Amino acid sequence: MSTGLERDNELLFFGDDLELSEHVSSLRYASIIQKALMPDPEIIRKYLKDYFVLFMPRDIVSGDFFYTYADRNRICIAVGDCTGHGVPGALLSILGIGFLNEVMQRCITQKPNRILNLLREKVIKALKQKDDVTSAKDSFDLALCIFDTSTGILEFSGANRPLFIVRKGELIEYKGNPMTIGIAPVLEKSFTEYSVKIEKEDTCYIFSDGYCDQFGGADEKKFKYSRFRELIRSINKRGMAEQGKMLESTFSDWKGDLQQVDDVTVIGFKF
């Protein structure tokens, strides 16, 4: 008997359960490879005072990714959110991680906005994107932080993604530019850079849009950014590991029996 899998309104049919099992096994192995490209928690602990990573793919493989890199006194931490999810998103995420490695290894001394500009150039070239209706519009959003341990300065740039910093109970938001890493209406516009002097006990948060876009609650509406901001502010006094667990349980309670609509990634960290 044929078995179907529904992904992005496309129904894929397999001749029998064995073929389905092989397909799922391939995806699970691909997931192992994808996760191997992301930072090892033991390595992250060398760079950060305290942190949590909430990483919940919608499917077996993910269009979200997170990234860290350190060289001398500069530490980079980022969250990416690729077009789509599942296999297409995962392929783009691997491309994004590869480009980030290439750029960071060559120029971690660059400003974050310059790094985003370079990444955009590489994605447009790699995907042969042109500013016309026939060109592929695949891209990824990115929140990119670089912290200088010698100065205590955090530099941030965002492509459609913000940075939250909670300081003494107040949530401060640094908005990313409404542009993506890929083809965009205004290709020559540079990304904005923020420079923030980090104070003791400041907590930083970067994230994909999956958490805020999840439908749920009594009215089956989106969680939304306003509710997410208040949640982050309200749990900030907790330990980082506990914050991660509270975010996960709140998301699960909100979603209830509804399907997860997108990949979810939230990283909270202290330097």
Measured as a percent range, the helix fraction is 25-40%
Q: Can you say what the CATH homologous superfamily of the largest domain is? A: PPM-type phosphatase domain
Number of helices: 6
- Using the CA coordinates, give the radius of gyration: 19 Å
**Which class best fits the helix and strand makeup?**
alpha+beta
Distance between the termini: 55 Å
CATH topology of the largest domain, anyone? Answer: Phosphatase 2c, domain 1
Strand residue content: 25-35%
Q: Can you count the beta strands?
A: 14
Strand count, sense and closure of the main sheet?
A: 5 strands, antiparallel
Shape: globular
Low-pLDDT parts are 1-15
Output the strand order for the largest sheet: 3-14-11-8-9
What do the pLDDT scores average to?
88
CATH class of the largest domain: Alpha Beta
Number of domains: 2
Provide the succession of SSEs: EEHHEEEHHEEEEEEEEHHE
Give the second-level CATH assignment, the architecture of the largest domain.
4-Layer Sandwich
Structure, explained:
- The protein is α+β, with helices and mostly antiparallel strands and 271 residues long.
- A 5-stranded antiparallel sheet has the order 3-14-11-8-9, covered by helices on one side. Strands 4-5-6-7-10 form a 5-stranded antiparallel sheet.
- 34% of the residues lie in helices and 30% in strands.
List keywords for this structure.
271 residues, alpha+beta, Phosphatase 2c, domain 1, five-stranded antiparallel sheet, 6 helices, 14 strands, disordered N terminus
